[in-house]
Amino acid sequence: MYDYSDAPQEIKNFITYMVTIRGRSKLTANEYFLDLRNFFRFILYKRNLVPKDIDFKNISISSVDLDLIKSVTPNDIYDYQMFMIQNRPKQQNSKETSYGVENKSLARKISALRSFYKYLCDKAYLVENNPTTTIESVKTKKSLPKFLTLNESVELLNSIDGNHKERDFCIITLFLNCGLRVSELVGLNIRDIGEDNIRVTGKGNKERIVYLNSACLKAIEMYLPKRIHPNSSAGDALFISQKGNRINVQTVKWLVKKHLDNAGLHNKNMSVHKLRHTAATLMYQNGVDIRALQEVLGHENLDTTRIYTHVNNENLKSAIEKNPLADLEITNNKKQS
Questions:
Q1: 259 carries an active-site annotation
Q2: Residue with more model confidence, 247 or 332
Q3: Could you tell me the sign of the dihedral formed by the alpha carbons of 269, 271, 275, 278, in that order?
């Protein structure tokens, strides 16, 4: 959880509302907070309410009050979008980052702002004029998900080695077989494991049961004896770090990247989330019904799952194009009488 101590009460109340009433997860609540903090840092900077030479990430929003929140206009939001497109680093902690956030990231930030002002207008009754109502949705590029092939997935699993081999193998096996989100994996507890399934807490704290195949059951069986840590403070957490704490998202991202590199798959531009895409794609390609896949992945909307049907269509197109007769053209070689 992030420190909300410098946030105005209106933002704190909004976060509480999203978690307790709307059922958003704490992780999602943190994302809302970061996006709102970023916006109001910009407002303070734009209106010369903080020193011009201050580092943007060091701007405190503790001075933001209801009057400032009410004063935000659509033009402020347009200026913020331009600022994010031109000036913000893509990787916050990298010295070699390029600048300008992607449309997908910008769309999420504007969505958080829209939710905040909708709450203030329709639920808290603190604001009369919603400055986000005239803001158009950011256009995002729709692209097919990247994924590993079956052979590449096998290569990845076979390459796993090191001091935490059993743990890392179990983690990646669950990703590739069950299509878990990284936040869902780090939240798993030992008590969530059933005889042939595991209870997963997804977005909005919604629970679902995911059945485990023999590979997953075997991987868990091999890992559990290695889980013991002399200084563990992880309680019932299924996966623990080298220090004995519940493993966190960043550690999982790091270990997945390490094993992808070791498997020679660094040029695939893969990530933890793309392992989820891999699981979904492999399941769909091997006959899993789209609605069953929706349940496995924990998608609220079937349209989100349908992207994997497009992946399969692309593969079908590719298969036709690879036919050795694909380039054959009619020739006029009939003998003249």
A1: no
A2: 247
A3: negative
